[in-house]
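Need residues for this backbone.
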């Protein structure tokens, strides 16, 4: 997988309430409307201006807070290509992968990437490139990459069962 797109950079401890506001959890169910509320309490310009493939960059503990799955799905529905962060909360990380959102922990890249710059994420070479350099991240397992490429865990399992 190879993504080259613009970076949206945020800080440390970006919680699920600012990724997807809790007030919409049980009232908003349509994909397009969920997408419209992505990051609205952190960056009101994001949902209207995000382009398919854009990369979100976060600091430490990205996705902390509740286990709200919409925090990952609103980014998927906006076409986010990847989230690169110094670190992730465990639940957000799993929700991201389960919904087909590539999440990569690479502290050096997260620090170096500047808002709005072009970033390349190359999962085959395990490298993130930006104006500040080239940063290696640990390889993702074949099953994790399979889940992301299938568009999420449910699609991945269905594909595996159909092939069996």
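Answer:
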């Amino acid at each position: 997988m190879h993504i080259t797109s613009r970076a949206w950079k945020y800080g440390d401890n970006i919680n699920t309430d600012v990724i997807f506001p809790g007030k919409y959890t049980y009232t908003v169910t349509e994909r397009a409307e969920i997408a419209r509320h992505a990051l609205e309490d952190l960056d009101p310009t994001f949902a209207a201006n995000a382009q398919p493939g854009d990369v979100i960059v976060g600091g430490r503990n990205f996705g902390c807070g509740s286990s709200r799955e919409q925090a990952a799905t609103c980014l998927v529905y906006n076409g986010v290509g990847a989230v690169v962060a110094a670190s992730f909360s465990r639940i957000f990380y799993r929700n991201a992968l389960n919904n087909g959102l590539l999440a990569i922990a690479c502290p050096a890249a997260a620090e170096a990437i500047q808002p709005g710059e072009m970033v390349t994420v190359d999962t085959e070479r395990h490298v993130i490139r930006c104006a500040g350099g080239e940063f290696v991240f640990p390889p993702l397992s074949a099953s994790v990459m399979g889940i992301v490429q299938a568009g999420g865990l449910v699609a991945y399992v269905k594909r595996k069962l159909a092939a069996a």
